[in-house]
Amino acid sequence: MLPAAARLTRSQDFGLVIRRGRRAGRPRLVVHALMDGGQRAGIRSSSPTRGRGSPPRVGFVVSKAVGNAVVRHRVARRLRHLMRDRLAALPEGTDLVVRALPPSADATSRDLGADLDATLRRLRLLSPAENGGDAR
């Protein structure tokens, strides 16, 4: 489980990250990232308390295209667990939306972790030598 301060929950926040953030994709998932709650790009944050110094937050989108409810919840649990291990390595004030694609339904946690690390490195949120955690 992610701590409450590390969760992206409001629909407006999801929309802001997806619209204004940078995006990197892999065959199993897409990650949208917005640094400093939009402050750096001159975008007014949806939350006045967000910005530099606030913990990174992450939200997940797992649509019905991924599978039935059991499969979607399994994918979301795996992604949540993988992101929990990588939160400490993310810059402060970063908001992420992780969108699972249909091939994620058949992926192992190791595959999802590798895709997650690759997208975070591509977005320059993790250094190339840094591995966010043990992706079992």
TrEMBL record:
Family: Belongs to the RnpA family.
General function of this protein: RNaseP catalyzes the removal of the 5'-leader sequence from pre-tRNA to produce the mature 5'-terminus. It can also cleave other RNA substrates such as 4.5S RNA. The protein component plays an auxiliary but essential role in vivo by binding to the 5'-leader sequence and broadening the substrate specificity of the ribozyme.
Any Pfam family: Ribonuclease_P
Organism listed in the record: Gandjariella thermophila
Enzyme Commission number(s) from the entry: 3.1.26.5
GO molecular function: 3'-tRNA processing endoribonuclease activity; ribonuclease P activity; tRNA binding
Single GO BP term: tRNA 5'-leader removal
Listed Gene3D superfamilies: 3.30.230.10
Oligomeric form and interacting partners: Consists of a catalytic RNA component (M1 or rnpB) and a protein subunit.
Name this protein carries in UniProt: Ribonuclease P protein component
GO cellular component: ribonuclease P complex
Superkingdom as given in the UniProt entry: Bacteria
InterPro entries reported for this sequence: Ribosomal_Su5_D2-typ_SF, Ribsml_uS5_D2-typ_fold_subgr, RNase_P, RNase_P_CS
Coiled-coil annotated spans: none
UniProt catalytic activity: Endonucleolytic cleavage of RNA, removing 5'-extranucleotides from tRNA precursor
Record key words, sorted: Endonuclease, Hydrolase, Nuclease, RNA-binding, tRNA processing
